[in-house]
Amino acid sequence: MAEGLAAVSLVNDGVALCSKAVAELKKFTHAEKDLKRLIQHVEQVRQSNELLSMAMTEMADVGYKDLTLSLEPFLKTLRTLIDEIMARASEIAAGQPKLGFMRRILWTLGSSTTEGLVKRLKDAQADVMRNVHLISVWAQMRNLSLTKNTEDKKRQSETHPELLDAFSDITLVNSEGGERAISNPMMRTWAGQIRIDSHEQQYQEYREGLADAAKYGSWDDMFRLIDIGCSVYGESWVNSSRLKPLAESGLVAGWAPLHQAVYMRAPLEVTQKLIDLGASRTLRTLWTEFDWDNMSALELALHLDVCHLIPVLRPVIHMPIPKQTLQLLEKHFHDLIQHELGNAIHDAMLHLPELEVLTEFEPTPTWFPIRIGDRHSGYMYQLDARHLLVRSVNVQGNGIDIKYRITEEEILIVDEALVFAYLQ
To answer: By residue range, what is the domain housing residue 62?
Structure first.
């Protein structure tokens, strides 16, 4: 058993090394197809290694320990790959100008170097899959079967991962109300521009009506106005709060419809529908009349003894990112917004995005619309493992969009916000 678990540990070292390589590779831009090919093949090796780890763990559980696996060539290939990538990136980055706290890295890889690395990665994956096959044969000879999860993982490892730009299928259009909206009306929205006169009159009336409907428990009107936000403005208002004039900037309470539903002891079906529409269970108020200002819907329910809602208000976390990492990503994101908008943050009364909300949902884009004068702009952002992808949309005017990859250490300008999409 101990020998088998030691082998599993070695395999998992390879998984971690692949994950590190992919994370580093996705930071660099201007690689075009060369970089994408490398990322795809490294990811395939990582998947194959995960499959091997699962299979070996199962065999270790039933006492199997005789199979000798040599993964050193594979690990050496990945270590060499990372070293070559970082050395080349360091050389190129050293000659590039810096833009404040943002660094632009240009990446170029010769075709011969690419082909050599791709061949070695393919060979490494073939070695791993041969070992998976040996374990499968051994299990069949002893009338054992690997679990369904292992088989599902095998099918995934044989699927070629496709690299896409997280924001490539999202375009901005002029809505009926004159706002610059997104073409996908179901995209999550961070409704963080609180100043009421930043918006056109009809928009103000709809948002005021929504806040009143939620506050007084007019659930049908609340859902009708949430639907208007999606269909007319391309925004999800399910996590929005009441708009305020600049003179009342210090009086923003930040109560979203889910907080109001708890306070009004809404029926379970109303609360569940809000959650189904994307209401955040980690979103906190900015002010309350109770002992604490920053309360989640669950904390409000516990405080007010609204027992029938407590089970559905417990957050379900899909992206378990460490709190410290989220805090660093959020700080860098806020610094970026401050860098691009300056004093407009105060003038527009912007409540900047809280990234903890993203951990509740699958990694898809969130839209933070900002209107400054006649200019419609904003930020799209999405988690990619422990990185944050950001698209700055017309924030600097002239219709210019800039894409960023934010890590714990830095903010990188990129040409594409690369994420994996697995072909079915």
So the answer is: 2-159
Q: What is the 3-state secondary structure (H, E, C) of 211-234?
A: HHHHHHCCHHHHHHHHHHHHHHHC
In terms of domains, do 181 and 244 share one?
yes
In this structure, the answer to whether residues 258 and 384 fall within a common structural domain is yes
Three-state DSSP class for residue 98: strand
Q: Distance between CA 83 and CA 106 in Å, rounded?
A: 17
Residues 61 and 118 in one domain: yes
Q: pLDDT tens digits for 273-305?
A: 999 999 999 999 999 999 899 999 999 999 999
| Segments of 100-157 assigned E as strands | 102-104
Domain of 188: which CATH number? Answer: 1.25.40.20
How many domains would you assign to the chain?
2
- Cα distance between residue 262 and residue 251, in whole Å: 21
Q: Are residues 133 and 254 in the same domain?
A: no
Q: What angle do CA 415, 421, 422 make, to 5 degrees?
A: 145
Name the token pair of 406: 């934010």
CA 53, CA 7: separation in Å to the nearest integer? Answer: 9
Tell me the pLDDT band of 57, cut-offs 50, 70 and 90. Answer: confident
The reported pTM is: 0.81
Transcribe 320-382 into DSSP letters: ---HHHHHHHHHHHHHHHHHHHTTHHHHTTB-PPPGGGGGGS-S--EEEEEEETTEEEEEEEE
Q: Which helix (H) or strand (E) holds 70?
A: none
Indicate if the alpha-carbon torsion angle 259, 261, 265, 268 is positive or negative. negative
Least-confidence region, from 80-89, 262-271, 364-373: 80-89
With 80 as the cut, is the pLDDT of residue 158 above it?
no
Sign of the dihedral through C-alpha 222, 242, 375, 190: negative
Q: Are residues 193 and 153 in the same domain?
A: no
Compute the chain's Rg from CA coordinates: 25
pLDDT tens sequence across 21-42? 888 778 776 656 777 878 888 8
Cα 8 to the chain's mean position, in Å? 29
Same domain, 214 and 145: no
